[in-house]
Structure formats: C-alpha cells, structure tokens
Amino acid sequence: MSTDRQVLSSVRNAARLLKEFSSRDREFGVSELARRLELGKSTVHRLLVTLAEEHLVEQDDITGRYRLGLAIYDLGAAVATGLDLHEAVMPSMEQLRAATSETVQVAVLDGREVVYIERLDSPHTLRLFLELGRRNWAHCTGTGKCLLAYLPPHDLDRILDGWELPALTKHTITDHEVLRTELKTIRRLGFAHNTGESEVGVISVAAPIRDITGKVRASISVAGPTERIQPMLHQLELGVAEMAAATSRRLGWTNR
Questions:
Q1: Model pTM?
Q2: What's the pLDDT tens digit per position in 132-146?
Q3: Please, are residues 233 and 227 in contact by the beta-carbon 8 Å criterion?
Q4: Phi and psi at residue 99, in whole multiples of 5°?
Q5: What domains appear along the chain, each with residue ranges and CATH number?
Q6: 122-150 burial by CB neighbour count: b if 16+ within 10 A, else e?
Q7: Cross-strand pairs, 59
Q8: Alpha-carbon span 171 to 74, nearest angstrom
C-alpha cells in the first residue's frame, strides 16, 4: 500500500492546523485559520471542536479565538524529557563502555516489553548485535527485571495478571512467584542480573535510572558473552549501579 493511501486527510489537516500556531501567532479565529489552510470554515470549526475536546487547543470565552491547549505543553514536556535522558545518560554509557569494552544499553518499559532506546557497541569482534528500538520481554532481561522491580505494586500486578511468562531459554523465569521474589531482591540490591535468560551464553547487569521525582524512568545495562562478563561480575554490579546513580543525579534526583 502506498504512503499516500495510508494518510488520513483529517489527521493531516489537524496537524497542519496545530502547526499554524507559533510564538508570534498565538491565537486564531476560525475564519483566519480557514484562509491560511485553504479549507472551509465548517471543516476548520469541526477540527477545532475536536481538538478542544482533547485539550490540544482551547477557546477564549470572551473573544472566541483559539490558542494551544495544555495537552500540547504535556507533549512538549515529554519530548524534552526524552532529550534530557539522552544527554544525561551518554556520559555514563561512555564511561561504562570504556571501563568494560562491552555493549552498553538503555531501555524503557512498554507494557510487558522493554524497548532499547540508547546503545553503545562493544569494540570486540565477538559482540552482541543489537538495534535501537529493539524489543524484548521484560521478565527475562536485566533492564526489564530492573524496571519491573521498581513499579508501584498495583502496576506490577496489572502487568503480571494473565501473563504466561514465555521461556526463551531453559534459564528463563516462568513462575510468577519466583519472579516476584527476584524483583524484591533487585530492589534490595539496587541492580539486576540476566544470566542466559533471554539468550544462552549472554550475561547482563542493569540498574535503575531515576528522574527528579525519584521515579524510575529507564534502566542502563552492560551485556556481553558469559566468558568475558563472569570474571568481572562484581565490579560490573558496582559500576553499573554507580553510573545509573550518576545519570539520575544529572536528571535532578537526590537521594535524601
């Protein structure tokens, strides 16, 4: 199917409408927007009413003109947060790769999966070949278990409810109670292990990254072949936890 056939004209028009607003042009009436967009006034009015329902725009009760709504600022803050995380975590990732010569990753939780949003590859010829945006199950990865461990209890219950934990290897945890016990241990220690649970012969160590509120937003990990990771496992635990804490401090978190 071509890209043109997949585009919804109503969504495109809504996007065009929103992009008309700027720091210079903060408010518009229906007629002015219709003229700029070369659309009928009735079409523009329907778009504005729909966007207002979603709080993407709001109407001035006195003038009847429209301006951007609070939901737009929330979306902008979410984008800024993602950029802040990239800037905050990169020094820690570079230090970890320099110290270990192994692959360093950062992941966030998306339901029952982790999504890898940052990666620095190992310089070794034998290394993990991973892609940004790659997904994996949360229960069998170091980053995933770390992120599950710091969820509020009701969120963890919701994720686990009805989830038959898939076994990727013979080492994968597939029992809910065993997983819950391990998550408690991760919270106590401050780091998580994945020892051949998602891929045979691979070990990773992960630790949580907190934002200014103390909420765990992401997890940073070092991963590599068992024969290289196992001898430095204890140092990795300390190093990954230290770099996660350093990233958290750059995001404004203080451990009081």
A1: 0.68
A2: 678 899 999 999 999
A3: no
A4: -80, -30
A5: 3-68 (1.10.10.10), 79-250 (3.30.450.40)
A6: beeeebbeeeeeeebbbbbbbbbbbbbbb
A7: 66
A8: 41
